[in-house]
Amino acid sequence: MNRWLVKSDPDEYSADDLARERTTQWTGVRNALAQIHVRAMREGDAVLVYHTGAQKAVIAVARVSSQPRADLTDTSGRSQTVELAFESRLPRPVALAEIKAHPACRDFALVKMSRLSVMPVSDQQWNAILALANSASPGKPRGR
Fold it and tell me: Model pTM greater than 0.90?
């Protein structure tokens, strides 16, 4: 199983939209490197959903629920898409600033190639992001 991160502008399509619809075709990816990643996705792969724009945070977890196939929104016929199925919201959003500050994410494409819309996530990066999501919010101690 591979792990991925996909980016979306929440004004166009948010994690809440995916939660409500339960599944969606992840269309509109046109960048050549991002398309290489889409083509490498397999049914069952885990996905982090990241909101761009003002929020800049990982919000939810999804799962790839189809093999790559033609993206019918691309009139050139070159792009591929996969179906994503919602799994869960994170206990709290993990901000880009937190990800950048975490040593495990130093080489993460999210940090190094900020415009890339689909990217692989290593086990170390995945675990770091989930640990951050399950920790107290920055500046807000948990308990007592």
Answer: yes
DSSP per-residue letters across 34-68: HHHHHHH--TT-EEEEEE-TTT-EEEEEEEE-S--
Where does the pLDDT of residue 50 fall: very low under 50, low under 70, confident under 90, or very high at 90 and above? very high
Lowest mean pLDDT among 17-21, 111-115, 120-124, 128-132: 111-115
Q: Is the pLDDT of residue 106 over 80?
A: yes
Bridge partner list, 32 = none
Secondary structure of the chain: what % helix, strand, coil (to 5)? 30, 30, 40
Q: Does residue 104 sit in helix, strand or coil?
A: helix
Instruction: Give CA torsion, residues 44, 48, 49, 55, to 10 deg.
Output: 180
Q: Are strands 57-64 and 118-120 parallel, antiparallel or unpaired?
A: unpaired
CB-CB contact of 9 with 53 (8 Å): yes
